[in-house]
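> Could you send the Membrane-bound lytic murein transglycosylase B prediction when you get a chance?

Sure thing. Input:
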Amino acid sequence: MSNNQAPEYQSRFDCRNTSNLFHHLHVFTAVFSAFLALCLSTNVAAEDYKNREDVKTFAREFAKEHNKNEAEVLILLEQGSRKQSILDAISRPAERVLNWGGYRNIFLEPNRIKQGVAFWKEHETLINEVSKKYEVSPEIIVAILGVETRYGRLTGGYRVLDALMTLGFDYPPRAKFFRGQLEQFILLADEQNLKATDLKGSYAGAMGYGQFIPGSYRAYAVDHDGDNVADIWGNPADAIASVANYFKRHRWQYGELVAVPLLNQTIAPDLISKSPKPDRSVGDLREAGVAVPAALDNAARVSLLAFETDDGLEYWLGFDNFYVITRYNHSRLYAMAAHQLAEILRAQMTVKE
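Output:
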């Protein structure tokens, strides 16, 4: 080192310059602490599900039940990581409870409608083919994909293995359910020859365009294009057909009514149905004084539904097809959003360009 450099070196690190010394010690300590924390957190993540007796028990029982190699099952499970963000997401209370008006504004907004029309036009031949094969109205197929993932745009960024491990082993309120879905997930990955550690979905383990949980995947997902895998993540053909199959299996009735509004009246609260499943006839409602559209047959079975908006209650009659939508998602708000989005998309697809 030259003499010209020595004074600078001394001024920066000489013990007599205590303020500079403490500053550099502080910086070094902070950097080292951050590095140490990163190392520890990485190690903890790697050890999340190793040597846990409940995980070992699951692997043992799964292997016995399904005639699989216990060691291989355990190796897979040990690759799962506990994600605090998943626990936060499933435990977080809603910031506010949306009424139907708020819910409608989210799912019937112009961009979702525009995207739906574009998606339908892009895949029109395929959607018509699937609709005919499964006897499910094309508009409800497209609407479900729109409500779930904006037509495949937002399918989730969590590893499904992490989601199901985290909720199955570290979320006691629903651990039994998510362990059951973990079991289904391992089976579907094996059956479809998919790498379980690569598959992604929502924080709750829902997957693909239609957000199928693993149990629903195994029950309803289909390989429409015949390539030997039901790819609901990246293959629109399989995703569209899988939703249609779900609705067919739940007895969707092609061309039949879904829901009809009841306008300009106030209905007694005790007449409102407790379930979206049709529980009375149109004739029963007429006898009770409800003004029902004249075109509806007295024998038709319906549920009487009330939806809260900022301007008061909206009343609707729900038919069997409305109930089928609630088999996909139990929320009546979800079902009404899917129905109304479907109607809007159908109307726009029939407009002559």
